[in-house]
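[Discussion] Sanity-checking designs against the backbone

I'm trying to build intuition for which residues belong where. Below is a structure token string of 287 positions. I'd appreciate it if someone posts a full sequence so I can compare it with mine line by line.
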């Protein structure tokens, strides 16, 4: 009986234990330049947005956002947001974080990444379409669209002039191992604004990383936004997916769209056929 129970548990647990395909990046980077540019910038803290989810997930969401915008200098028009979100899907509440980066006019780095109970990255062809990498620990493929329905401005909205923006450029020579294996070369630009110039307590330790890369699989672009604790970004091109940076310095790509959807009804049929087989085997042994 214990053996039969183990088989039943495996049928249920294996789909939920599957994680999105991942690639670990390793290698060395070399600093090529470090400069300081003084820019005008603005922030907005505590903006609340609400909206609806459609397609793969149907429900509602609410997010609280920190928003940073560069108004002058070489990177004028670049902006990023850090969000904490809560979503209600199927009557259940889930939460996580999101990172977004864009430029006006549009740049190759426009995109968004979502982490938590819903893991997704913005599609390269449609920035409003989120490609699913994982959801509630279960591997899926598909997409959904978050549509904003209301917005409440933040309590703190500050503009500053002549704020220092530290700009570091680096080259990266490395390799990828995991779902994707091969060589990887990249040019990185780190934008490190001195947010203390705003005089607002509790702001994140913000750092924005822009990446142009080439790999054995092809070229692409990526971004990563570090908030002082963890990094999260999106990667487009040949290595399309979520880009995660951890406090220990390791960087992992969680690939979008690589996993086939799990056929839950099929799993039920598999379980049923398995039980029938076990009962038949038990009856034969008795006879």
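Best answer:
Here's mine. Compare freely.
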């Amino acid at each position: 009986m214990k053996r039969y129970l183990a088989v039943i548990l495996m049928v249920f647990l294996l789909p939920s234990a599957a994680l999105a395909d991942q690639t670990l990046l390793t290698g060395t980077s070399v600093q090529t330049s470090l400069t300081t540019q003084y820019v005008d910038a603005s922030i907005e803290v505590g903006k609340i947005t609400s909206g609806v989810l459609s397609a793969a997930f149907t429900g509602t969401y609410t997010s609280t956002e920190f928003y940073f915008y560069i108004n002058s200098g070489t990177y004028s028009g670049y902006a990023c947001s850090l969000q904490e979100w809560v979503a209600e899907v199927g009557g259940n509440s889930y939460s996580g974080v999101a990172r977004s980066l864009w430029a006006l006019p549009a740049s190759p780095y426009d995109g968004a990444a979502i982490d938590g109970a819903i893991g997704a990255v913005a599609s390269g062809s449609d920035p409003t379409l989120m490609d699913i990498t994982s959801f509630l620990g279960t591997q899926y493929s598909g997409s959904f669209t978050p549509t904003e329905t209301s917005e409440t401005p933040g309590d703190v909205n500050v503009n500053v002039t002549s704020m220092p923006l530290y700009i570091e450029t680096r080259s990266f020579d490395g390799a990828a191992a995991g779902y994707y294996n091969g060589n990887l070369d990249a040019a990185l630009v780190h934008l490190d604004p001195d947010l203390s110039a705003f005089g607002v307590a509790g702001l994140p330790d913000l750092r924005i990383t822009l990446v142009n890369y080439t790999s054995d699989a092809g070229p692409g672009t990526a971004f990563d936004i570090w908030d002082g604790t963890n990094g999260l970004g999106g990667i487009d091109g040949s290595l399309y997916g979520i880009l995660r940076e951890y406090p220990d310095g390791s960087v992992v790509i969680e690939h979008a769209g690589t996993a086939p959807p799990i056929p839950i009804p099929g799993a039920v049929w598999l379980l049923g056929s398995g039980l029938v087989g076990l009962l038949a085997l038990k009856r034969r042994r008795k006879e």
